[in-house]
Amino acid sequence: MPHDLKKIYDAFTADGTFLSGEPYGSGHIHDTFRVETAEKLKDNYILQRLNNRIFKNIPELQNNIERVTGHLNLKLRSVPGSNVKRECLTLIPAKDGKSWITDDEGNFWRMYIFISDHRSYNIVDSPGKAYEGGKAIGRFQAMLADLPGKPLHETIPNFHDIEKRLDAFIHTVKADPEGRVQKVGKEIDAVLKRAEEMKIILKLGREGKIPLRITHNDTKFNNILLDNNDKALCVIDLDTVMPGYVHYDFGDAIRTAANIAAEDEKELSKVKMDIRFFEAYARGYLSETRDTLNQVEKEYLAFAPRLITYTIAVRFLTDYIDGDHYFKIHHEHHNLQRARAQFKLVESMEEQYGLMREIIKGLV
Ligand code: ADP
Ligand code: GN1
Ligand code: MG
Question: In the Cβ-directed half-sphere of 216, how many Cα atoms lie within 13 Å?
Fold first, then answer.
C-alpha cells in the first residue's frame, strides 16, 4: 500500500496546499519524500517515514533534533546576512504540537522545510567542493559546542565503537544465517588483519587524551548541502548528532569526499582516495576548528579516514552476512559490493598515509 502522503502532510502545520509527493534522495535509512505545494511562492517540504527498527526511541530522537535545530537557529540569527531557513533544518510541528506523528499503520513521520536550490553530491569532483564541506562540518561542530542542557540522547548506542562493531561481526560470522560466509573469506581476512590497530581512537578516549564533543556522526558528503555556487549551505541528516570524537566526522567525510568512485563501485580499480580532495577538506575543516582541537586530536586526524572507512566496510559486510536487514539495498549482493569498495578505499588510504600525515602537520 502506498502511503497517503496528503493525509500525513495534513497532520502537520505546514503552510501551503499539498500538490504532490515523490520519493527523494539516496539515503540508506529512512523513506524520504519531497512534497510540492500548490502555491508557487510557498515552501516545499520533506516528509520522512522514520526507520524505527534502527532508531528505537523516536521521541528521544526527535527531542535531540528539536534541541539541535533550535540552537543552530538561534546562533544563525545573530550572524548578519544569514538565511536561517536555508542554512539549518527547520522542523514543522504537527497539529498536536509534537515534532512527529504516527499514522494508522504505526509509522513515525516528521517534516522539514525543503531547502531549495541546493546541490548534493554522492561523488565530489573538485577540491573546492571538498573544502566547502570541511568548512561546513567544522562550523557545525563549533556552533554546537555550547549546546545547553543535558547530554544528547545516544540515538544508536555505540554507533562508531569499533570494538562493539567487531564483536557483532564475529557473532554474525559464527551464526552465518544465510550461508554467505563461504563467499567472503577474503573480506573476513581484511577485517581481522586490521582489527587491533583500529582500536586506537577508543583507547585515546579511555585515557582521557581526546574529549567527547558533540559530533554529527554521519558526515557522508551527501549530508552536506551546497548552494548553487557550490558554497557550503546546510548540514542535514541530524539523527546521529550526539557525543562522539571529532575523528568520526572527519573520517566519514573523507571517506566520501575524497573517494573518486561511488561508495558501491563494482569496478574496484576505479576506487581511490584523491589526496587533493583530502587536503582541501582538511584545510576547510581546520580553518574552523584549528583553535579548538587539542594536540592529540590533531595528530590522529590523518588516521581517522582509515578507521571510519574500515568501520563502514565492517558494517556493510556484517549486514551482508546477516541477510541485509540494516542498509537499504538495490540488488542481491549490494552490501558485499559496498564492503569490497570500502576495503579497496582503505587500501588506497594506507598507501597514502605518510602523505596524509604530512598534510595535516602542515595545516595544524
Ligand atoms: P537518510 O538517513 O535516509 O540518509 P536524510 O535525512 O539524509 O535520510 O535524507 C535523505 C535525502 O533527502 C538527503 O540525502 C537529501 O538529498 C534529502 N533531504 C533531506 N532533508 C532535506 C531538506 N530539508 N531539504 C532538501 N533535501 C533534503
Ligand atoms: C547511512 O543515513 P545515511 O544514508 O546518510 C548510515 C551511515 C553510513 C552510511 C553509509 C544511521 O547513512 O552510518 O555511514 O549509510 N546511517 C546510519 O552510506 O546508520
Ligand atoms: Mg542521509
Answer: 26
Give the DSSP letter of residue 276.
Answer: H
Residue 1 has pLDDT above 80, yes or no: no
Q: What is the CATH number of domain 5-113?
A: 3.30.200.20
Fold of 127-363: Aminoglycoside 3'-phosphotransferase; Chain: A, domain 2 (3.90.1200)
pTM of the predicted model over 0.85: yes
Tens digits of per-residue pLDDT, 241-287?
999 999 999 999 999 999 999 999 999 999 999 999 999 999 999 99
Q: Is 25 near ligand 1, meaning CB less than 6 Å away?
A: yes
CA–CA separation, 277 and 273 (whole Å): 8
Q: Is 347 helix (H, G, I), strand (E, B) or coil?
A: helix
How far apart, in whole angstroms, are the C-alpha atoms of residue 248 and residue 312? Answer: 11
> Within 10 Å of residue 148's Cβ, how many Cβ atoms?
6
Q: Report the nearest-CA residue for atom 13 of ligand 1.
A: 25
C-beta of residue 240 within 8 angstroms of C-beta of residue 218: yes
Ligand 2 atom 13: the closest Cα is on which residue?
218
pLDDT computed for residue 60 by the predictor: 98
Please give the Cα distance from 297 to 211 (Å, whole number): 8
Nearest to 216 by CA among 197, 234, 199: 234
State the pLDDT at residue 2: 86
- Residue-wise pLDDT for 327-363, tens only, equals 999 999 999 999 999 999 999 999 999 999 999 999 9
- Contact present, 225 and 233 (Cβ < 8 Å): yes
Sequence ranges of the chain with CATH classification 3.90.1200.10: 127-363
3-class DSSP state for residue 102? Answer: strand
Start-end of CATH 3.30.200.20 domains in the chain:
5-113
Q: Is 243 within 8 Å of 259 (Cβ atoms)? A: no
Strands 101-102 and 213-215: unpaired
Residue nearest to atom 4 of ligand 1 (CA): 27
Pocket test for ligand 1, best of 24, 89, 312 (most atoms within 8 A of CB): 24
E strands, 8-58, in order: 18-23, 31-37, 45-49
